[in-house]
């Protein structure tokens, strides 16, 4: 009897060690990408049952949760938006609204890219907007060449050779880049290394295209504005990027009694932060590459009319190619607005939402319920009629085509991310079942002697550094099971540490391989790695500083961060020997 009692702690300790080993192996494979991320995510389903930590049935159930239903609904919307070119119409319209002053033009691209990234994946947004920005940058360069040619000739009324050259050459360059850079739609964060060969191919054909240093700097500025704003825009909504979705599902699973985190509450605290980061990044990038002339920017100063006309012309031509807005775009836009309104009004917090209509079943209807409802409508609402001609010559309709088809949805659905997230949830469940989470919390409890702001800063900087060399989903999946027990051990509201860490996971601005938008713009050949490192370092500092400002000011009263909540488990303050 005595020996059996002594064996129990050993058995428990063995499970903790075995789960720690599983976590170490999976984290190592994720960080090194020795295997594809989604393949590595399947290892917990193999290792946890073999170590006796969790039965296979329980592990399998972690691979499909509420997160996946929300993702399916969002991808239905994204598929329809991209199929009917609504995203391109929105981007061009927003750029046309801000005018063609170089600084405001850059802000227009950043704003439109950030807005689209709120609802589409960062990768798809960058891949769509970058060719438009490239065409505008080439128009600026050609317009400058035209000014030089005008000053060196005595002839008047000559044709605009700059625009003619651009129409043929630039179109070829864009098509060539589209063929060489085919991003995977959806929330794909697996990014291969960008080889120097690609850069040489891009640059070899462009040796004479930079007439001036300013022209080269303009191309660099446009590239980084698109890459960074697509990442910043994804911060503002739970569905904006996969890391937000992973955090929301992990948090709601670990703390089911907390119903404070939903689409509306996330947008309320993240939108001001993203807006400040976007504006400061715009100022920083503008100053870093071209210098920030306040007089020219805000008082319009002296402008080069030819360059501005060239930019306005190419944007106008791109918009006119879309033609008048179509029925399919209108329906998609209406469904998009309805989905956003239903998300915001489900449980806004300051007033009862529509979820109060189902008070008998509190917490049953979630954001995924809304996403699925709207997502199904895309398969039901007809986009166009299919007709045939009868032997008598009469044209009759025999069927209709929906807004999106299942085949189109499948091509957009990021199944690799769905598996990756499932693997993260399985790991988190394994940490709980084995007692590893509690053990980590006890070991980290001495950190409670540090000021809370310092703990938040250290965790934010740690995550920001890690996400530069590892994919964003892998980073957030690894750190969440560590930071949650830490918050519980030092008796701090878990949101106080998890929110800034989740936001900082997206701050992968330094390297081309850090995230797909960086890789896409880098493949255009205008940038060197050192350009991205220098510019990205400033954006990283801005991002972490704004997140720290937000978590110490306007986010505090929203979630009562200074109080340890009742929905969080009461952790023992005793540390293990």
UniProtKB/TrEMBL annotation:
Claim: Transmembrane is one of the keywords in the record: yes
Question: Quick one: a GO cellular component term?
Answer: plasma membrane
Entry similarity comment: Belongs to the SLC13A/DASS transporter (TC 2.A.47) family. NADC subfamily.
**PROSITE patterns named in the record:** NA_SULFATE
Q: What is its main location?
A: membrane
**Name assigned to this protein:** Solute carrier family 13 member 1
Q: Enumerate the UniProt keywords alphabetically.
A: Ion transport, Membrane, Sodium, Sodium transport, Symport, Transmembrane, Transmembrane helix, Transport
Record carries keyword Ribonucleoprotein:
no
TM spans (from-to): 20-43, 101-120, 221-247, 267-289, 325-344, 364-381, 444-463, 495-514, 535-556
Record-level Gene Ontology MF annotations: sodium:sulfate symporter activity
User: Membrane topology type, per the record?
Assistant: Multi-pass membrane protein
Protein location: Membrane
Organism of derivation: Pongo abelii (Sumatran orangutan)
**Chain's gene name:** SLC13A1
């Amino acid at each position: 009897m005595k020996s059996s009692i002594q064996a129990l702690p050993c058995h428990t300790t063995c499970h903790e060690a075995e789960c720690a080993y599983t976590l170490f192996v999976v984290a190592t494979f994720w960080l090194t990408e020795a295997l594809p991320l989604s393949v590595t995510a399947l290892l917990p389903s193999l290792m946890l049952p073999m170590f006796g930590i969790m039965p296979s049935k329980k592990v399998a159930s972690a691979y499909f949760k509420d997160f996946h239903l929300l993702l399916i609904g969002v991808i239905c919307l994204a598929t329809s938006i991209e199929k009917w070119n609504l995203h391109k119409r929105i981007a061009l319209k927003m750029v046309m609204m801000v005018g063609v002053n170089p600084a405001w033009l850059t802000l227009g691209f950043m704003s439109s890219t950030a807005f689209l990234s709120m609802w589409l994946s960062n990768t798809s947004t960058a891949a769509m907007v970058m060719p438009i920005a490239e065409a505008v940058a080439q128009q600026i360069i050609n317009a400058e060449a035209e000014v030089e040619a005008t000053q060196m000739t005595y002839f008047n009324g000559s044709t605009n050779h700059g625009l003619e050259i651009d129409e043929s050459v630039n179109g070829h360059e864009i098509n060539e880049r589209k063929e060489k850079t085919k991003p995977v739609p959806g929330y794909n964060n697996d990014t291969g290394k960008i080889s120097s060969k690609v850069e040489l191919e891009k640059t070899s054909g462009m040796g004479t295209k930079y007439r001036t240093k300013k022209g080269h700097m303009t191309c660099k500025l446009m590239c980084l504005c698109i890459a960074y704003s697509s990442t910043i825009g994804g911060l503002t909504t739970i569905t904006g990027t996969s890391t937000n979705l992973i955090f929301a599902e992990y948090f709601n699973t670990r703390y089911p009694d907390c119903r404070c985190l939903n689409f509306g509450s996330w947008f309320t605290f993240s939108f001001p932060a993203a807006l400040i980061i976007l504006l400061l990044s715009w100022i920083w990038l503008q100053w870093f590459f071209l210098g920030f002339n306040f007089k020219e920017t805000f008082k319009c100063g002296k402008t080069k009319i030819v360059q501005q006309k060239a930019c306005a012309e190419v944007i106008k031509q791109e918009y006119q190619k879309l033609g008048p807005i179509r029925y399919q775009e209108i329906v998609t836009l209406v469904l998009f607005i309805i989905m956003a309104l239903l998300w915001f009004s489900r449980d806004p917090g300051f007033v009862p939402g529509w979820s109060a209509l189902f008070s008998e079943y509190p917490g049953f209807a979630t954001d995924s319920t809304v996403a699925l409802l709207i997502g199904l409508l895309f398969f039901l609402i007809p986009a166009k009629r299919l007709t045939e001609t009868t032997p008598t010559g009469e044209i009759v309709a025999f069927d209709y085509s929906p807004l999106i088809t299942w085949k189109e949805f499948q091509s957009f659905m990021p199944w690799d991310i769905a598996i990756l997230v499932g693997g993260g949830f399985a790991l988190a469940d394994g940490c709980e079942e084995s007692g590893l989470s509690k053990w980590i919390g006890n070991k980290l409890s001495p950190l409670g002697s540090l000021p809370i702001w310092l703990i938040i800063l250290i965790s934010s900087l740690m995550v920001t550094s890690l996400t530069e060399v590892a994919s964003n989903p892998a980073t957030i999946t690894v750190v969440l099971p560590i930071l949650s027990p830490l918050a519980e051990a030092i008796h701090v509201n878990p949101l106080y540490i998890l929110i800034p860490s989740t936001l900082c996971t997206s701050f992968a601005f330094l390297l081309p391989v850090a995230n797909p938008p960086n890789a896409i713009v880098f493949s255009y050949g205008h940038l060197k790695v050192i350009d991205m490192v220098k510019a990205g370092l400033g954006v990283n500092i801005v991002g972490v500083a704004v997140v720290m400002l937000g978590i110490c000011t306007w986010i505090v009263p929203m979630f009562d961060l200074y109080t340890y909540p009742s929905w969080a488990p009461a952790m023992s303050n005793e540390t293990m020997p």
